[in-house]
Amino acid sequence: MTIQIQVLSKAECERVHESSLDILKQTGMRIETAQGRKLLEDAGAIVDHTTQIVRFPEVLIEKSIRLTPKNFSLGARRPGRNFAVNHGNSTLSMSGEGIRVIDRKTGVHRDSSNKDWLEVTRLCDAIDEIGIFWRTITPHDRDNTMADFVDYQISVFQNFSKHVQDPFMAKDQAPWLLEILQTVFGKKETIRSSHPFSTVICPQSPLILTEQYTDAYLALKGWNIPVSIMPMALMGATAPGSMISTLIQCNCEVLGTLCLLQAAEPGTPILYAPVSTLMDPKSGRYFSGGVENSIMNAASNEIGRFYGFPTMVTGLESDNFEPNVQGGYERSLNTILPTMTRPDILIGPGLLGGDMILSFEQLLIDIEIFRMCHRTCRGIVSDDDKWLCNVIKEIGPGGNYLAHPTTVSGLRGGEWYIPELGVHTSYEQWVESGKKSSIEEAREKIDAILTNHAPLPFDKETQQELEKIKNKAKGVSITYSFN
């Protein structure tokens, strides 16, 4: 009795695929990296180096789909926290990448700092439902030097011991990243097989693959680093004004990028991760609270599953600027439908205002929303031991099941979801407790976690080697500036 939903039929998914093949063959994509165009040309694509337009024959796309692994694990430093994709399980990814934070002591909105980043990273390390790191916020008090990049990457692994997924900006950062990975996780073959680190490539809608981030990833060639392919098309602005056409364009951008990745390194693991969004018709801005986001993200998951790919989708979205009722209904509605299509990874708790503002309290509320949605997905368990007809006969008219052993086993076996936030008591007990709001309750829980949780430490030798890498990077004078 597992609950099943369907947004797109199999025939509709096939039509999305066929439409994508036609667009990629006739129109193609603009591939702004010369290295990428050369790789695609060698693989059989039709390349115009003057216009940078690459057209993709159907045979190249189908071959790239076949080359893509459908089952693998995203490794972790913490024992027991590897995450196997395409196995029917879901985990949360931290969201990214906000620029402001609501100070949980004062309630004031301010620029995000490195201290905020460290706290939210440690908080997410402690929450079991979050299995994937993203840089939730960008600290304003960090520099753009190589030394800062190295210090940041080391800090990530020091403070988050589950799987790390993080984009990086420039190809000359790649050797430093690889040196850190080897210091933390071991030799190249271990990293190639266990996938403790993955990254993100975001095609620019409509139908562009930019040079900077693509060449940065290509500098990791040979290491079998998984990639989330994540176009972020905005329906009505950078994508057509219909949901199905926005899904088709995103699928084109994923498949075109996939061809490049498989041409560079056959067998590269990917996650199908388009973020199909919509424009606010009143302002032209990103309409993150729109319920259509929920529908398109659920459909994106179905299209990814049509190919057999592991999937990553977005939920927990809203337009409000602080935790409130609007956020409650928008985030719940934008989460339940994608969750019920069973993605491998759901992004991303804690960010408000179109993913620009971090609220620590909202993050804990979002965890509660995800847990409730996850319980809803499980539906009604109909195993033989759940059909308690004999117990109904045993208790009989006017009886009580409270003390019966099957009630205890049901409680322990997941028949009930027991909330960890909110009011679930009598009015008198609520008044006696001080009428705490969910925000106040979440704040107390956050303070307790940050006081008591210590991330998994490195051994002494690893820590010493990482310090050597930091010191070496201080001698590199490169400063990065990015649009």
Notes on the structure:
The protein is of the alpha/beta class. 44% of the residues lie in helices and 12% in strands. It is built from 17 helices and 20 strands. Helix 1 crosses helix 9 and helix 11 runs parallel beside helix 12. The mean pLDDT is 94.
Helix and strand topology:
Blueprint (H helix, E strand, L loop, with lengths): L9 H17 L2 E3 L2 H10 L2 E3 L4 E3 L2 H10 L5 E2 L8 E2 L6 E3 L6 E3 L6 E3 L2 H13 L3 E4 L12 H14 L3 E3 L8 H12 L2 H7 L2 E5 L6 E2 L1 H8 L8 E3 L4 E2 L7 H22 L5 E3 L4 E2 L13 H16 L4 E3 L10 H16 L4 E3 L3 E2 L4 E2 L1 H19 L10 H7 L9 H8 L14 H6 L5 H15 L7 H14 L10
Parallel strand pairs: 1-12, 6-9, 6-18, 7-20, 9-10, 10-11, 11-13, 13-15, 14-16, 17-18
Antiparallel strand pairs: 1-3, 2-3, 4-5, 7-8, 19-20
Short description:
The chain is of the alpha/beta class and 483 residues long. The chain contains 17 helices and 20 strands.
Question: What descriptors fit this protein?
Answer:
four-stranded mixed sheet, 20 strands, eight-stranded parallel sheet, 483 residues, alpha/beta
Helicity level, as a percent range? 40-55%
Distance from first to last alpha carbon: 50 Å
Q: How many distinct helices?
A: 17
Low-confidence stretches: none
Category from helices, strands and their pairing: alpha/beta
Main beta sheet: strand number and arrangement?
Answer: 8 strands, parallel
Enumerate the strands of the largest sheet in spatial order, edge to edge or round the barrel: 15-13-11-10-9-6-18-17
Average pLDDT reading:
94
Shape type: globular
The number of strands is: 20
Strand content: 5-15%
Radius of gyration of CA atoms, rounded to a whole number: 24 Å
